[in-house]
Amino acid sequence: MNRSARRLCRRCSRCGSLGNAMPREAHQYSCVGTGFIVLDVIRNSVGATATEKRFAGGSCGNVLTILAYFGWNANAVGRIGDDHVGRELVDDLSKWHVNTKLLQVETGRGTPIIVQENYLDARGRPRHRFSRACPVCGATLPAYRPLLTSEAATISAKLPSHSVFYFDRVAPGTLELAQKSRANGALVVFEPSGIKDERLFAECLKAAHVVKYANDRIEGVHDVVAKTKVPVEVETFGAKGLRLRVRANGRAGAWKDLPAFSAPELRDAAGAGDWTTAGFIHGLMRKRASPDEAVADFDAIVFAIQQGQALAALNCGFEGARGLMYIADANRVLELSAAIVKGTKKPSVAEVQSKKRVNGHSNNKECLTCSGARSLHA
Fold this sequence. Notes:
Elements: H1 3-11, E1 30-34, E2 38-44, E3 51-57, H2 59-69, E4 73-81, H3 84-95, E5 99-106, E6 113-120, E7 126-131, H4 149-158, E8 164-167, H5 172-183, E9 187-190, H6 198-207, E10 210-214, H7 221-228, E11 232-236, E12 242-248, E13 251-252, E14 256-258, H8 272-284, H9 291-294, H10 298-315, H11 330-342, H12 349-352, H13 368-372, H14 374-377
Parallel strand pairs: 1-4, 1-8, 2-6, 4-5, 8-9, 9-10, 10-11
Antiparallel strand pairs: 2-3, 6-7, 11-12, 12-13, 12-14
Helix pairs in contact: 2-8, 4-5, 5-6, 6-7, 8-10, 10-11
């Protein structure tokens, strides 16, 4: 991109609010994602004054938005409500140029909401917990709704050409999209949160090139993954890091342990897994290799996942699952994460921050959780 074109991208009406994000022309990559796309309501009781902020979130929502931050053409597929919450969710996604045209807006249904409460434990360490209860009245907030199988064919026909398909929930309609994406040459990344239907879960694994799961959330997953022979398997252990192994010709290699990088400052660990996943996808596909070539390159896989871990460490210094994005330049963030992986730099929070900031989140003190779920309180 020439200098004049870069200035135009920075200042035009479409990109002007995202001066910190990478220009969309920086990459030709495109990702489609479906699954857990919600509005994160972050309530912080650390400090003298309690605060509430709201971001587009959920594992799928975060991964798509981080990829868009890095210049990807990201497309969200899912179901939301025709309510105030849904409009704020779409507004935040749109600020980062995530395509929301394939989000189905359903009249009379609520948009999924997750409340994240940040607090200090007995030792004064930052901690967070998640809830689906309204913090004001206690009512249960709207939950995730899977894609309808009857809509899968219609949605599939509308999908843009994409090099990556990401999903984090098991559903027949989602499986159909994953299978078609793989058949059309996309890298399929599956990040499950549990096993409910083992047969359907196994079919999702068969459609995936990469599976990533948390050690403490899924029991019995190793046997199922072994039977389905997923090429790349990643198991995470929270603050301890992760391990991965690659299957060549159907045979699993040895596990490789990768410890987590130290955060420049531990303020909020939420979203660390999502940064790891997005960084991994971005790093693995940067050479424009086919999915089969990408998952066969062990060294590239290791470097990509480590870059994701470094991004996760950087984000821990800021509030929110994607707090880093709102105050830091994408190019600078990628440079620092690469330096962390190489062991040449341990940046401070102040060094990460950019002079330009994106006002993409809300600190409105009104109780959006109640106003968005009003029908549930009647």
